[in-house]
């Protein structure tokens, strides 16, 4: 049976999915900030946690402007990532856990980048400028978060180098 949706329905579904995804990310980041041992990574996770809270506020504002409730859907994609993160926090320790938590943060960010890009496109098609601007603000912060997480292993401005033998942190540096 084919179910026909309007673009407004698609946007409503996207907003509810993003709202749920951000709620799951907040719960995950609260645990990740506690579990991570590297102070620099802890600071990055803390920043992302604060941004996720502001993302929820923007999504709620966008939902209100299109007259929908932001609650009502569970984001199964983000739930799966968070469940994996819960398992690794219980099973791993030290630097190996830190590496896995960085990977988890990247997975969450990449999921949301795609979801925000899609929702922005639908808002643009519907000519909903206010919704588009709110979603674009969140998308811009997600892009920054992706770059920041990717830089953790780079030799660029910020780098954490792990020993290939045991995963111990060899050095953390920030070059200005």
Entry summary:
This protein is mainly α and 176 residues long.
- What's the CATH H-level homologous superfamily? Ferritin, core subunit, four-helix bundle
What is the helix/strand order?
Answer: HHHHHEE
Query: For the terminal residues, how far apart are their CA atoms?
Result: 58 Å
Strand content: 5-15%
Count the domains: 1
- Cross-sheet strand order for the largest sheet: 1-2
Q: The CATH topology is what? A: Ferritin
Low-pLDDT segments? none
Indicate the structural class: mainly alpha
Instruction: Look at the structure and give the CATH class.
Output: Mainly Alpha
Helix content: over 70%
Q: Let me know the largest β-sheet.
A: 2 strands, antiparallel
Count of alpha/pi helices: 5
| Beta strands, count | 2
Overall morphology: elongated
Mean pLDDT: 88
Instruction: Report the CATH architecture.
Output: Up-down Bundle
- Rg: 18 Å
Commentary on this structure:
The protein has helices at 7-35, 39-65, 76-91, 94-125, 129-151, and strands spanning 158-162, 169-174. By secondary structure, it is mainly alpha-helical. The protein has one domain (7-151): Ferritin (Up-down Bundle). α4 (94-125) packs antiparallel against α5. The longest helix has 32 residues, at 94-125. It is elongated. The termini are far apart.
